[in-house]
Every structure is written in structure tokens, then in C-alpha cells.
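Anyone? Bumping this.
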Amino acid sequence: MARPMDEIRWQDLEIGAAVSEHGSSSEYKTGTWRSLRPVVDKDQCIRCGVCWLYCPDVAIKQSEDGYFEADLEYCKGCGICARECPVGCISVVIEEF
Amino acid sequence: MDKFSVFSARLVEKGEYFTSGHRACQGCAEALAVRLVMKALGRNTIVAMATGCMEIVSSPLPTTAWEVPWIHVAFENASAVISGCESGMKAMMRKGKLPPKKINFVAMGGDGATADIGMGQLSGALERGHDMIYVCYDNEAYMNTGIQRSSSTPWGASTTTSPAGKVSKGQYTQKKDMPKIAIAHNIPYVATACPSFPFDLMDKVEKAAAIEGPAYLHILSVCPTGWRIPSEEAIKYGRLAVNTCVFPLYEYEHGEYSLTYRPHPILPVREYIEGQGRFRHLGSEDIDSIQERTRMEYEKLVKLSEED
């Protein structure tokens, strides 16, 4: 977004409250909601991508070496990835900010 | 059974058309369902969305989580607006004002918008035969405003407007069978799906997009907040709903029913009911009556699919 979200006033909105910039919600970091954090054990990970497919927050990204890891800027800490991992290589730990 | 294995997850389309930063609750399976539907539909899509959870969480001004043209309309008229979009674009293509192109016209709504408030307009759009897809995300109550009952709430579920207590056992009516109502319109494609079976869901969405004419998809979306379950178990409860036959996965294509997934063995309904806070007050005989009804409904469906 051209300007930070909290600086936009109502005068700046387009007619009909249209939003012309697609996907701009990624400006808002939902990671601050988190109380639990997923941790991947790379020795056990088989890089299947099941955690990525089941993540409701699109927070799991594939890194260059093929491993799937949570993007902590968006991860809300729901724990679905840890629960659904077929090899059980994801554990959740209490987040300390 | 191959398409139900999730081990080929890496082969799924990488593009995201419903991006991160949306404000859905932790573990929202409805957000996951929207994400998977959009993955299957791709970029050439126009979405009209009725008021509801997904509209609220995806578009707080001045941001949007959508990567495709998207319009928010009132509870009633998502299907009416998308019919207008479809007709308008068709006319513009015929007159040569737009290059001819295959566009997916999709209306989305929750169970309240579909089964209660927007039902007349949905019926009209299905009857007129627009080339559109209607997707209903069924989380079995008005979760967005704080868990009020809808006509899609199952019997026995406690919500804020059907509270369980000394006199009441929660919701006292049965869940409205919305897919059957859509089938009664004689439209080419109707299917039920659940995001716990992502490949099945995406297959059905692709099929609905490819078919000429209206298609209706009913997607069971587990709501950890409203169903009173831990957020990490959202996928598990979706799977249980299907494996206990509370929510069978089937499709209706050009007049023929087919079950796309037959759970084997069929799990007792108790497993699905017991962990959920909204059913906490139900006794053993209540669960037995749900079991009996579920078995009957499923047998009816099996009979229908075997007739064809």
C-alpha cells in the first residue's frame, strides 16, 4: 500500500469504498494474535506440503531448500499444521514475545 | 481412493487468490475452504459475496484479502448480482466490447445467506440458468454476529438463540437440506464438499466451473469458535462429519447421484458429537436418535446413487 493503513482517512477513500489494490490485507500482520508457535523438526520433515495445504491463513511458505515453514508474520498459531502433519514433525511451543 | 490422499499436496496450484492477513479466527476452516475454492478457480474469476464471516474478515477497509474482482452485496442478493454480472459480460462479449474469454462467475454466501435470507434470489438465479457457481459455506449458524441459530443448524446444537437448558435441548428443528433444494431446480451440477478433503473439494469446484449452466456447491466449514472445539481440531471434525455420515460427500451431475466418498468403516455419530461444546448437553438417547436419523438419511442417499 502506498500509505500505511492507519494514516488513511475517510477523505482518501474511493467512491463506493472501492479498494483498488488487490491483496492489500497482507499489510496487516496477524502474527501478533499468536500465543502458540509451530516449530518444524527438519530431520523428520518429508516435505510433503500437507501443512501448507491445510493452513487457513496462507502463512506456510516453501523455502528454497523445499522445506515448509510458517511465516510468523501471519501465523495465528491455530495448531492445525501440527495436528495434521503425517509424520508429526511439527510441535507447538508457547510463544514468547 | 487416490484423490483422497493428501500426500500429493505439493502438486496443487501454488497461486493464492485469497491472501494472508485476513481476520478470520484461529483455525477457521471456512477461510481454508475459500482459499481452496479460489485455488481451483484461478485468476479469471469474479466473486460476489453476501454478508457473512468471510466478507467481514476479508475486506476491512481500506484493505482486501482478494486477488480477484470481488464485490460485497447484502445478505439477499449475491446470486442476483452475479447473474447480472454474467448477463452483462455476455452481452458485452457478444457486442464485441470485450474479448471473448472464459470467466468463472461465483456467488458465495454463508448458510444464513443461502438457506435463510438469500434463498429466493438463489432459487431465481438457478431457475434462470445463468452460467454461474453458487458456493455455500455452511458453518451451521450465524457465526459472524455471535452464534445465532440458522435453518442450517443441526438438531440439538446449542446456540445463543437456541440455548440448551432445563427446558430446551438447543435447536429443536432439523437441518435444512439445502443441496436437495438445489437439486430440485434440476440444475446440471450440485455437490457437497468439505475442506478436510481438499482434493475432492477442488475437483468438484473445477467440475462446477467447467459445466455450462448453474452449479451449486455446499461446503461444510467447521467453525472452532461456534462449535466450541479447539482450533487445531477443525480439520479433524470435518473429517469426522464425513466419516460418520453426518455430512456425506456426494454429487449430482445431469440427473445422476453419485457418492464421491464412502466412509469405511462408518464411524459412530457419538465420536463426532461428543467433543463438541455445542452438543455437550445431549444425553445418550439424544445421540442415539441422531445416529438413527443419520443412518436413515445416508441409506436414502446410497439408494439414490445406486438407482442410476
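Late reply, but here is one note on the structure posted above: The mean pLDDT of chain B is 92.
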